[in-house]
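Bench log, entry 3. Co-assembly request; chain sequences pasted below exactly as received.
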Amino acid sequence: GESVGLHLPTLSVQEGDNSIINCAYSNSASDYFIWYKQESGKGPQFIIDIRSNMDKRQGQRVTVLLNKTVKHLSLQIAATQPGDSAVYFCAETGGNQFYFGTGTSLTVIP
Amino acid sequence: GAVVSQHPSRVICKSGTSVKIECRSLDFQATTMFWYRQFPKQSLMLMATSNEGSKATYEQGVEKDKFLINHASLTLSTLTVTSAHPEDSSFYICSARDFAGIQETQYFGPGTRLLVL
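Structure output for the full assembly:
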């Protein structure tokens, strides 16, 4: 079946630096992608989404990049803050089913 | 974004009892809701898809008689863990689809921590 995976299970960054979290997907038919943030003991929180007709989308301090050629998705967090420490995972869908990646644990070092 | 709530947020129960968890979409109607289970430091595991007005669709390996799902209205789905045992202790998360504009997005509830003694 379809799978969504992440390149790095853990990531540590210095406070103030930029973070980049990557995600690979395998279903070429997927046309909608979402990044979620999950803090410890809480449910996943929607961060930003992107449709396949776009390559880049920016939010507040976050940017999602989509490379359909290599089926790669990334989340960039600018000026990472301690409150950004969490697990981030991507999701893809091409229709009814959403597929979620395993997640990357981001730790921000003060 | 859309808001999904869960109740209770945390529950401790004795082995053999049943526990009901509610999932509500607060500002939108959701014909489809999903129930997930998550163990520490692991990813979400889809248990079942809850469809309003019809039977839930369970993932392979999930016992439908143990995890009863009811989606009686467009804003409420319930998951009942029947005859709970310690191995059922986990973090249960629901999500709901909100079709707003041109794209459905899935929003998650805050989760329910279940501890079975």
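The interface with chain A takes residues 1, 4, 6, 41, 43-44, 91, 93, 95, 103-111, 113 of chain B (CB under 8 Å). The first strand of chain B starts at residue 4 and ends at 7.
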